[in-house]
Write a structure and sequence with these properties.
4-stranded antiparallel beta sheet, 5-stranded mixed beta sheet
Length: 229
Amino acid sequence: MNRSAAKIVREFGPFPDVTSVGGVTYDGQHVWIAAGKTLQALDPANGAVLRSLDVAAQAGTAFDGQYLFQIADDRIQKIDPETGQVLATIPAPGGGGRDSGLAWSEGTLWVGQFRERKIHQVDPETGTILRTIKSNRFVTGVTWVEGELWHATWENDESELRRVDPGTGEALERLEMPPGVGISGLESDGRDEFFCGGGNSGKLRVVRRPSRDSNTGSDSDIPVDSTSE
């Protein structure tokens, strides 16, 4: 398993009236953060708050190309990003307070369960659990990028990003955050960066995704330096 220090390339926040950042997603133009009672759209270049939707947003957030999905207690809400209207809801697999990360990939939702150390693939229309992946660490944010499944962990004072085998849950790669810097929500920009919610710090951090060798698809041998908070 490849193991290296995470490289934090940008950091934004704390944001006005935001005490904690939960879920994070990216719609191709804006980074959305779950801020408890609102979903806020940020400029990914400078962290400026561009819009705010009044909707319950305690945990994971996802975007399917048209709609936002947001964990709110015991349910997952489907939200119109233009109006903030909740269009539909499905039950969250944890039943309330146990679900953490949320991601969209190939027509389904992927839901992290924190203390249960699981990731569920869920039907977005019915909430039916299609399959479950087990981790050996607490699961916070979840994201897919170029066929890779990544999830964030946060236990005690330690947090990291993990690339895992989507079939077995085996950890294939680890990016360790500096001590005391935790990750709540997680989303990829679809290329070479991860957007990482900072929980009660109220911050959003951008972490560099390790480069891949263009010929072999393997990881670069260049070590990744850590950046302190």
